[in-house]
């Protein structure tokens, strides 16, 4: 029998209520019922009268404790806490709007009718009045997907500005753009997800309605899907037109119309989608653009960058509600035409006034382009390896050659020395790392790859030992000292805890911050931080890693470390079996650790050179899950000569220190028993 506790005890049995509340004061202070739930299961033969049963299909268990009842209660009971299961986010929908609350509400019901809820919706509001805010407050609680409202003050038509703010608010690596006057068909989101391709953006269209028909559509018409039924719409006054094929085309006819349409696959703001990496590579939308062609200009820069449009106007359908366009002027149209002409003739890739403000050197965009090509080759190689046979041994050869070529081009582009942006200090994330003298000359390349992240941290801290750098900043290369102007901090500590420095001091000095640790010998993909934060949003209070190994057991004992497979592609999951590897960056929530994490005597005796394993052992002790998985994550690019002084070679090479250190920790803390009890 389940007795439900939320803000109050629902079970009407006063004897049960009084006993439980007397022994568990925290039951009176349960968090918001939308996100956390506490159930008490009574282990007794007879039922509790009128107790409420709960459907737990949308919840996941996070803890369970068994208690022995005393006195007149005469039963045992378990307190089980749950949190709501959030569908893994695969897409961020950025929806522009301005002072059209009635139209926007209809569009929201269109997204409520979607056949997938694996998306978040960001309302990019270009200065609407309070009516839009009030409508969102009324409607949002009725929706089953996550909604964010991004707003700025009304200073005229500034759609590109608010779209850039919407991009920065996105938590996924794939973005769909539409307008607050375009009602999507139920397969709108899922079709964009199904058709997405690396190196492409998707170009859809719309079906325009008359003003009368726009006003007549009701919530029920949208949720039921009637408004996409051609016969029903004809009965409402929709005229006959070839464009009605958008509502009816399927299968071969749909492919034929998409393939042979005379319309170019341009970026259409009401129905287009693309990868976040590509959007950031061209610096988002050009905020100089007014109404008229601003979406096309963005697509033209993507084409210049090497990301080509794919026509899907007969595959993804949205109904465009009619409205006036008072912001359209001859001056804005002409200004936009001039900007677009320059974009096409000069092959412009980077918006000078976009997400990142100011004119930046073209080498930056070039480096990003090379990295994206390197990523695509890396992904192909992984798929060839999984297929085996000719794919693994023959087809992969040109792929390996191209990967090596782009690898070298990325390194050279970073070495040529372009300006890096400054830290924004508008987040709670700290990136922490350490290094030692043999690698100090190339550390500036690592730091630049962190400064160029799609999500910029509040701080980047490099922990250095005074024993190795007695002259402090004077011992650092000029390239490193220059980065202090960008906000990078170098902190010198008296002890030399080797690789453990990157977490040891930051957890001590910044216990309330979210921390991401990285290694000192790699150029990181630009979505490293963004991807880790996305995992942490799905599974809060867990450690998150981009590169994951899986613990393997031989019976009830750990197998050798080399048999713990490294996983590049897997569904997002959170488990004690996952081991976060430092080469991909690791996210740590605030205050996840205990004091034993800082016991240097134990570290130096049992695990002096394997910080990843030391942290994993502490995670097992505290039952902290590790989250990983999702879209393919490429190996970060190794810097030349840095692997001559690599812990990885010592720990997992011929010397094989990992097994020795893990065995020592296992003997100390009985980790195999902890894992067998909690991890499987």
Secondary structure layout plus pairing:
Layout: E1 2-5, H1 14-23, E2 36-43, E3 59-68, E4 76-84, E5 91-97, H2 101-112, E6 119-125, H3 130-139, E7 146-151, H4 159-169, E8 174-179, E9 182-184, H5 188-195, E10 200-203, E11 207-208, H6 211-216, H7 219-224, H8 230-235, H9 245-248, H10 251-260, E12 272-275, H11 276-281, H12 294-305, E13 308-311, E14 318-320, H13 330-345, H14 362-387, H15 389-415, E15 429-434, H16 443-451, E16 459-465, H17 478-482, E17 488-493, H18 501-509, E18 514-517, E19 522-523, H19 528-538, E20 543-545, E21 548-550, E22 553-554, E23 557-558, E24 566-567, E25 570-575, E26 578-580, E27 586-588, H20 600-606, H21 611-621, E28 626-630, E29 637-638, H22 647-652, H23 657-669, H24 671-678
Parallel strand pairs: 5-6, 5-8, 6-7, 10-13, 11-14, 15-16, 15-18, 16-17, 20-28
Antiparallel strand pairs: 1-2, 2-4, 3-4, 8-12, 9-14, 10-12, 18-27, 19-29, 20-27, 21-24, 21-26, 22-23, 25-28
Helix pairs in contact: 2-3, 12-13, 14-15, 21-23
- How large is the share of residues in beta strands? 15-25%
Which homologous superfamily in CATH is the superfamily of the largest domain?
Spore Coat Polysaccharide Biosynthesis Protein SpsA, Chain A
CATH architectural category of the largest domain: Alpha-Beta Complex
Note the total helix count.
Answer: 24
The total beta strand count reads 29
The global form is globular
List segments where confidence is low: pLDDT < 50 over at least 5 consecutive residues.
6-10, 358-363
Q: Using only CA atoms, what is the Rg?
A: 28 Å
The major sheet is characterized as: 8 strands, mixed
Which structural category fits the helices and strands? alpha/beta
Task: Give the termini distance in whole angstroms.
Answer: 27 Å
Within the CATH hierarchy, at the fold level, what is the topology of the largest domain?
Spore Coat Polysaccharide Biosynthesis Protein SpsA, Chain A
Class of the largest domain, according to the CATH hierarchy?
Answer: Alpha Beta
- The helical percent reads 25-40%
**Count of the separate structural domains:** 4
């Amino acid at each position: 029998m389940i007795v439900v506790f939320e803000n109050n005890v629902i079970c009407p049995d006063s004897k049960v209520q009084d006993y439980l509340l007397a022994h568990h004061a925290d039951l009176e202070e349960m968090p918001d019922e939308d996100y956390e739930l506490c159930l008490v299961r009574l282990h007794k033969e007879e039922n509790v009268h009128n107790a409420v049963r709960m459907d737990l299909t949308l919840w996941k268990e996070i803890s369970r404790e068994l208690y022995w009842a005393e006195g007149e209660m005469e039963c045992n009971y378990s307190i089980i806490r749950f949190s709501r299961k959030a569908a893994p986010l695969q897409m961020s929908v950025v929806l522009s709007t301005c002072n059209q609350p009635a139209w926007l509400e209809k569009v929201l019901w269109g997204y409520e009718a979607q056949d997938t809820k694996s998306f978040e919706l960001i309302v990019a509001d270009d200065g609407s009045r309070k009516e839009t805010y009030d409508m969102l407050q009324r409607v949002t609680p009725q929706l089953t997907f996550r909604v964010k409202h991004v707003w700025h003050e009304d200073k005229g038509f500034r759609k590109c500005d608010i779209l850039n703010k919407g991009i920065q608010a996105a938590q996924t690596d794939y973005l769909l753009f539409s307008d607050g006057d375009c009602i999507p068909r139920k397969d709108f989101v899922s079709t964009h997800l199904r058709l997405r391709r690396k190196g492409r953006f998707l170009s859809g269209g719309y079906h325009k309605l008359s003003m009368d028909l726009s006003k007549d559509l009701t919530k029920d018409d949208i949720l039921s899907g009637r408004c996409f039924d051609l016969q029903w719409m004809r009965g409402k006054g929709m005229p006959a037109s070839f464009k009605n094929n958008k509502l009816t085309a399927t299968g071969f006819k749909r492919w034929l119309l998409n393939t042979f349409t005379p319309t170019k696959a341009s970026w259409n703001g009401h129905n287009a989608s693309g990868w976040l990496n590509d959007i950031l590579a061209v610096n988002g939308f050009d905020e100089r653009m007014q109404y008229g062609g601003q979406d096309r200009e963005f697509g033209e820069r993507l084409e210049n960058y090497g990301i080509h449009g794919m026509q899907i106007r007969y595959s993804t359908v949205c109904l465009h509600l009619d409205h006036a366009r008072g912001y359209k002027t001859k001056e804005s149209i002409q200004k936009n035409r001039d900007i677009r002409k320059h974009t096409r003739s000069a092959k412009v890739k980077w918006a000078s006034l976009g997400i990142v403000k100011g004119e930046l050197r073209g080498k930056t965009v070039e480096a990003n382009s090379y990295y994206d090509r390197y990523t695509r080759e890396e992904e192909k190689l992984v798929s060839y390896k999984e297929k085996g046979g000719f794919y693994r041994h023959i087809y992969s050869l040109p792929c390996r050659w191209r990967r090596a070529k782009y690898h070298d081009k990325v390194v050279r582009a970073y070495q040529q020395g372009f300006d890096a942006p400054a830290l924004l200090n508008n987040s709670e994330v700290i990136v922490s790392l350490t290094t030692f003298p043999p690698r100090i000359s190339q550390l500036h390349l690592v730091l630049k790859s962190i400064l160029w992240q799609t999500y910029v941290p509040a701080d980047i801290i490099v922990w250095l030992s005074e024993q190795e750098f007695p002259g402090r900043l004077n011992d650092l290369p000029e390239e490193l000292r220059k980065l202090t102007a960008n906000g990078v901090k170098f902190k010198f500590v008296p002890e030399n805890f080797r690789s453990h420095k990157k977490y040891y001091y930051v957890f001590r000095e910044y216990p309330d911050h979210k921390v991401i640790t990285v290694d000192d010998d790699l150029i990181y993909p630009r979505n490293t931080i963004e991807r880790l934060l996305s995992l942490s949003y799905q599974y809060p209070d867990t450690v998150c890693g981009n590169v994951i190994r899986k613990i393997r057991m031989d019976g009830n004992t750990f197998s050798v470390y080399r048999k713990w497979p490294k996983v590049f592609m897997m569904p997002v999951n959170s488990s004690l079996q996952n081991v976060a590897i430092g080469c991909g960056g690791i996210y740590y929530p605030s205050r996840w650790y205990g004091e034993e994490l800082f016991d240097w005597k134990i570290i130096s005796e049992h695990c002096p050179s394997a910080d990843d394993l030391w942290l994993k052992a502490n995670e097992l002790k505290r039952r902290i899950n590790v989250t990983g998985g999702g879209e393919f994550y490429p190996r970060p690019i190794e810097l030349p000569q840095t692997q001559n002084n690599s812990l990885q070679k010592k720990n997992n090479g011929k010397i094989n220190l990992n097994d020795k250190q893990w065995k020592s920790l296992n003997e100390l803390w009985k980790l195999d028993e902890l894992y067998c009890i909690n991890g499987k």
